[in-house]
Write a structure and sequence with these properties.
Blueprint (H helix, E strand, L loop, with lengths): L1 H16 L12 E3 L3 H5 L5 E3 H10 L3 E2 L6 E2 L1 H6 L19 H9 L3 H8 L4 H19 L5 H21 L1
Length: 167
């Protein structure tokens, strides 16, 4: 049952990651408490994933309002996510190096920038890479002008910068 729940959570996260939510429209995932009281209570206490992430980063447990106990964050996450995943439900990865990404874009290395962001947002990187490949092919076949290719590349660079600012 735990493996099935982990697969469902992963699939929902994949679906949600394909959307670009703004301040008015966002997904707040909630995770049930796993203390002794909540295991037998309907409904159990739920924690927002963002709160669990903040507590995990601070190295602090969270407080259950039903049992009045401090619960280790990893204990809550272990019920829903594989042990190698953090509170955000993603495999723990190095932090996004915005300076490195900006330098790649400044030196017109868009393809390398897209390869770099693939570790952080695979779908965005794939979509932008496909757009770059399509305009390059169209230009080589004489179906698009070099100016159009430059315009598309600039749009993609702007999209990467916007994506980076959201992180």
């Amino acid at each position: 049952a735990k493996a099935l729940l982990q697969n469902i959570v992963r699939d929902i996260n994949d679906i949600n990651s394909g959307f670009h939510f703004n301040e008015r429209m966002r997904v707040d995932q909630e995770i049930p408490c796993c203390c002794a009281v909540c295991k037998v209570t309907e409904p159990p206490m739920y924690f927002k994933r963002s709160d669990l992430d903040n507590a995990e980063q601070a190295g602090k447990p969270v407080y259950c309002l039903k049992s009045f106990e401090l619960i280790p964050v990893q204990q809550i996450l272990d019920g829903v996510f594989p042990a190698e995943e953090g509170a955000m439900g993603k495999s723990k990865k190095p932090a996004l190096d915005k300076t490195h990404l900006k330098n790649l874009l400044k030196t017109n290395e868009l393809e390398q920038a897209l390869a770099y962001i693939e570790d952080f947002d695979e779908s965005a990187a794939i979509l932008l890479s496909a757009r770059i490949t399509a305009i390059r092919k169209a230009t080589n076949m004489g179906l698009a002008s070099p100016e159009e290719q430059s315009r598309i590349r600039l749009q993609c660079i702007k999209t990467v910068l916007d994506w980076m600012e959201e992180r």
